[in-house]
Amino acid sequence: MPSAVHEQDIEDLFIQKLRDLKYTDRPDIHDRASLEANFREKFEALNRVRLTDAEFARLLEEIVTPDVFTAAKTLRQINAFTRDDGTPLNYTLVNIKDWCKNTFEVVNQLRINTDYSHHRYDILLLINGVPCVQIELKTLGIHPRRAMEQIVDYKNDPGNGYTKTLLCFLQLFIVSNRDSTYYFANNNARHFSFNQDERFLPIYQFADEANKKITHLDDFAATFLVKCTLGHTISRYMVLIQSEQKLLMMRPYQVYAVKHLVTCIQQDSGNGFIWHTTGSGKTLTSFKAATLLKDNPDLAKCLFVVDRKDLDRQTREEFNRFQEGCVEENTNTAALVRRLLSEDYADKVIVTTIQKLGLALDETSKRNQQRKKNDQPTYKEMLAPLRDQRIAFIFDECHRSQFGENHRAIKEFFPRAQLFGFTGTPIFEENAAQQKIEDTQASMKTTEDLFQKRLHAYTITHAIEDGNVLRFHVDYYTPGTPTSPSAGSSSEPTRTSALPGSALPALAKRAVIEAILQKHDTATGGRRFNALLATSSINDAIEYHALFATLQAEKQKADPDYKPLNIACVFSPPAEGDPDVKQIQEDLPQEQADNEVEPDQKKDALKAILADYNTRYGTNHRISEFDLYYQDVQKRIKDQQWPNSDYPAAQKIDVTIVVDMLLTGFDSKYLNTLYVDKNLKHHGLIQAFSRTNRVLNATKPYGNILDFRQQQDAVDAAIALFSGEKTGQQAREIWLVDKAPVVIEKLAAAVQKLDAFMKSQGLDCAPSSVANLKGDAAKTVFIERFKEVQRLKTQLDQYTDLTEENKAAIEQVLPDESLRGFKGQYLETAKKLKEQQGKTTGGKADADDPVAQIDFEFVLFASAVIDYDYIMGLIARFAGQTTGKVKMSRDELVALIRGQSNLMDQSDDIVAYIDSLKEVKGLGEDAIRDGYTRFKAEKDAAELAAIAQKHALAPAALQTFVDGILTRMIFDGEHLSDLMAPLDLGWKARTQAELALMADLLPLLTKRAGGRDISGLSAYEQ
Question: Quick check: 437 pLDDT over 50?
Answer without folding.
Answer: no
